[in-house]
Amino acid sequence: MKHINEAVSGVSGYFPKNNPEIGTPFNLKEDASVPLLFTPITIGNVTFKNRIFAAPMCQYSSDNGHATDWHVVHIGSMAVRGIGAICMEATAVVPEGRISPEDAGIWTDSQMEPLKRIVNFAHAHGTKIGVQLAHAGRKASTYATWVQVHGHHHTASKEENGWPDEVFGPSSIAWSENFGEPKELTKDELVKIEDAFLASIRRCQEIGCTLTSSNFIGAHGYLLHSFVSPLSNTRSDEFGGQSLENRLRWPLQLIARPEQENGQWKQFGIEQSKIYAAEMHKLGVDLVHVSTGGNWSGQKVATGPGFQVPFAEEIKKSNPKLFVGTVGLITDAKIAESYLQEGKADVIFLARALLRNPHWPLEAAEQLGVRVKAANQYERTFYRM
């Protein structure tokens, strides 16, 4: 009998094959129950091995939009530790759509090869992967978080590799006094942005991303989010103003190719978000990752463990056939499992918890009393059960 360190097939390079895949239960007792966190889920035509997803996390470490070895290590460290899916950081579809000068990009073909290397590595370890296609809108041309001086202006100048004169939004309304005033996008410019998103989708598909076609950032005050809110969109054409239908029109047009007071919308809240989610679902969007805040500088967000979960729950209740992901300082495995068991969400997105501890999925399995596969190279350190 031959004993061979079998290789993964269908990928570039040699990687030892994990059987079963990393992050999946195995060697279970007959009567053992499997936590929902570690059960597969099929969304659209894609099946994920578990329900622990890595949320996009800006790294401010790209070289003119090109991923670097930092990204290989950063993403790779999660891929080999049992994550069901990874959504890579906000990746700009045009240069002026970056949040910071060091943001990731996919506006040109030369940016494909570095990303392809990362995608190949994730696939070799059984992890689905995609990028979050992005345009920062009026919050573009800002500093990396560790460069920004608290209390000072946020806009990077040309001398600081920024593009302060090429910042755009739905209307000429600055996010705060520390941001520059954006230019209002013309209809022709909106079409060009749509074209850039479509070209970026094609690049993602070509490099093998699992999550592509509608994996857009629509939150945190960036371009799509700023279109749907009357705080940031006061246009007088069919893409803005008091009409919710108008404010949703361009984001929905892109996806396809009610805090109301005295008869006027004062903000974009949960009631309008339910409508937005329903309209996206009609267009074939399978999963929404629910997050809030970031579009108004005067907003005070009460943060704490699971602080975004109630919003995800409301979206799920109003759109039961839509898959919903939740996020927001989720760190405890048992609490994460309870959100799934109670039907508040279908998948759990983790961000800072994974930055602190890439082993979170494997340790969560231990806490929930189930044995899951660790990478061949690491399994000697995990099997204490």
Structure described in brief:
With 385 residues, this protein is α/β, with parallel strands linked by helices.
Q: How many domains, in number, for the residues? A: 1
Tell me about the largest β-sheet.
7 strands, parallel
Q: What Rg, in angstroms, do the CA atoms define?
A: 21 Å
Mean pLDDT: 88
Taken as a percent bin, the fraction of beta residues is 5-15%
Within CATH, the superfamily carries the name Aldolase class I
CATH class: Alpha Beta
Shape: globular
Domain NADH:flavin oxidoreductase/NADH oxidase N-terminal: 37-368
Cofactor: FMN
InterPro entries: Aldolase_TIM, OxRdtase_FMN_N, YqjM-like
Pfam family, one: Oxidored_FMN
Topology readout:
Elements: E1 41-43, E2 46-48, E3 52-54, H1 69-79, E4 85-92, E5 104-105, H2 112-124, E6 128-134, E7 168-169, E8 183-184, H3 187-207, H4 223-228, H5 244-256, E9 260-261, E10 264-265, H6 270-282, E11 287-289, H7 309-318, E12 323-326, H8 333-341, E13 347-350, H9 352-356, H10 360-367
Describe what this molecule looks like in 3D.
- By secondary structure, this protein is of the alpha/beta class.
- The chain has a single domain (36-381), classed as TIM Barrel (Alpha-Beta Barrel), CATH 3.20.20.70.
- The chain has ten helices and 13 strands.
- The strands form four sheets. Strands 3, 4, 5, 6, 11, 12 and 13 form a seven-stranded parallel beta sheet that branches. A two-stranded antiparallel ribbon has the order 1-2. Strands 7-8 form a two-stranded parallel sheet.
- The longest helix is centred in the middle third of the chain and has 21 residues, at 187-207.
- The protein is globular and about 70 Å long.
